[in-house]
Amino acid sequence: MNRPQPEPIQQVKKRRDDALNALVQSVPYIQFLGVTFDRRGDELTAQLNYHENLIGNPLLPALHGGATAAFLEITAMVTLNWSVLWQRIENGELDPQDMAQGNLPRHPKTIDFSVDYLRSGLPRDAYARARVWRSGRRYASVHVEAWQDNKERLLAQATGHFLMPQSGDVGHK
């Protein structure tokens, strides 16, 4: 019995990174805020790269609450979409090269998003990770936590509910 040779790890990593990059590039606001994602297997860590335009109160100085909330929502949405797309990419249902051409499934739509601001954001990079609590065919619930220097001292946390795109929904080029 001959088993097929496993795919070289460099090809697997490239396929996954290309898919994540296509997903992130499909939302221009992510680039506007300067958010990047670090992928380790199927886990994503978002990074809000500090820029002086993100300061809301220059007297403190502190990150703007809207930028913090947007960072949390972006992290939740991309993590949720990634968790759904991950399996489809691994099964070969989705081709990262097609995704790069704009043939992406639609993003989940926010139903509601509740942010808890726990401390002022300092003028430096912030990080966030999201956990998908529930993901069904129509609805998903996601929790996000953000921090700066110490993961145990959260900057903010949020819970969001999302309407999942129906199968076959494809984004536009």
Labels describing this entry:
173 residues, alpha+beta, two-stranded antiparallel ribbon, 8 strands, 31% helix, globular
Protein model, in words:
It contains 4 helices and 8 strands. It is an alpha+beta fold. The strands form 2 sheets. The protein has a 6-stranded antiparallel beta sheet with strand order 1-2-6-7-8-5. A two-stranded antiparallel sheet has the order 3-4. The protein is globular, with a radius of gyration of 17 Å. The model has no long low-confidence stretch (mean pLDDT 89).
Spatial extent as radius of gyration: 17 Å
Low-pLDDT sequence parts:
none
How would you characterize the largest beta sheet?
A: 6 strands, antiparallel
The fraction of residues in strands falls at 25-35%
- Sequence of secondary-structure elements: HHEEEEHHEEEE
Instruction: List how many beta strands DSSP finds.
Output: 8
How far apart are the first and last residues' alpha carbons, in Å?
Answer: 44 Å
Q: Using the alpha-carbon principal axes, give the shape.
A: globular
